[in-house]
Amino acid sequence: MEIFQACKQEKKEFFLWLQKKPKEKKILSLIYREKSKAKAKHTETKKEKPTKKTEELNIQSFLAGSYQVTDSRYFPLYERNHSSFQMGGKVYQYRWILEKRDNRVLGGFSFEGNLFHAYLGSRYKPMPNFYFAKDPNFFSQFDGNQSHLPQPLLDSHFLGFNTKFKQEKLSLGIYKSYTVSPDPGFYFVNQEKSFAFTSSLTTGIISLYLQKRFVWEMFPGVKHHIQGEGIGSAKSWIGFVFHRSEINNLNLKFDITGYRNQPGINIPISELSEKQGSKQDLGFQRIRYKEYYQCETLFSREGLRYESGFGILYPVWISAYGAISFRYRYYEEKGFYNEHSFGRGIFYEYRENNSILSLGIESRVNKLQYEAKIAYPVFPNYRFELSILLRDKDIMMRSWFENWSFATDFNMDLVDRPQIWKLKFVGQNLSLNVSISEKKGDPNYIYYTNFQFQFLF
């Protein structure tokens, strides 16, 4: 009874009382010790015997589908419409999928064990590479680590084992994919899937993938994110690289990104070097300070066409409701045409917590260009974005167009179309992409829609 009454006292008074009562102190110590043992035993039992609910989490199923339509006379009929339907599931280390892509019925299977792994069919692969053996007519908006719907493949098979090197878990193996090489090749990927490498010795085609977030010990206040991917041979390859550095205490961001593309190549194949068309190398750099101060540069080489430029965005009024800024850009083109001009614009922008509202107009050699962008999170795990570009038809040089504000890879294009309207709604289980554009020198519009969904249960 005396112990019970003492426990009701304040913490400081209780310890003073306990120092004067050695017998009671010993009793309480024994009680606390036995209680701790019982708690530890209960925790250990929970770890050894997972509940039925926990076990059920390793068994999942899904249904998914997509529909894509392109309304344009510039594409043949067989390239305009594409549809797919998928069903599959996961049972512990096993994943399977059965799908219909247009008129093809395909399947995929994967096994991920402690020592060995295998990926077979038209969907699963051990590395996150986007370009590797990708089906050119389809893409997955829900791709990610352990996703039910990674990027769709053309028929490919992977077999390998897991090992350790200096405490780092690695996966190595061989692959067979006629899309990349008529003969088998080998691959290597780390456990976090932040680095992957494949090589075909007969064709010389290799692929690289890198994604890393890190902080240097010498500069702990600077966060870095680098992502890149490429595939091809030493003579002919495509790919991109993106790097972002952030200094949060200074509200400063630095982006540098670039890519190489080649018309007519949607996926890399063993005949990559035989494809015709001018390669485009494009690079873009941007420094953003306090969201509204911005400096940017761009360069592009496409065949004999060289384009470059730089720009400054400088706010003249900032408030909690956004900023009004002046933008100056210098455009230059060499090659078939030797042109240069200054663009002077005025913009209203609001940027806060991944929400963006930007409206502006630019004048270039007495020609006008209108720009608008609205981007914001609408629900948890869902984002909406609308981008608009309207140009006078007589503007000589191409305009800079940012496709997707939330992208973590290359995202800047050079466009000469008088009109571009792009709407994107992307979330955990639904995705909608719509674009409308007018081709230069032609009154016909190009309409594009891609819808994807998935249901998990």
Automatic annotation (TrEMBL):
Give the domain of life: Bacteria
State the protein's name: Uncharacterized protein
Q: Record the organism.
A: Leptospira ryugenii
